[in-house]
Description:
The protein is of the alpha+beta class. It has one domain (6-64). Helices cover 34% and strands 23% of the residues. It is built from three helices and three strands, in the order βαβαβα. It has helices spanning 15-19, 37-40, 52-64; strands at residues 6-9, 28-33, 43-47. It has a three-stranded mixed sheet with strand order 1-2-3. Helix 1 (15-19) links the parallel strand 1 (6-9) and strand 2 (28-33).
Amino acid sequence: PPQALLLTSALATSTTQAAAWVPGPERVVGFGVLPPLKAEGMVEIAAGCNQQASLDASSSLCAAA
């Protein structure tokens, strides 16, 4: 759907670079799992340029999980 967030591994490519490849680049959010996820429960979220709304939405999703 056009409003869906698009998650990309921030370890593989920059969030801004990945956003340049898709329509609706403001929907792209980078993430990285900090091991051990099960023990620590930490996920890094990285917004690219001009993506504050997507960053806020993904942060809310992680907080709710």
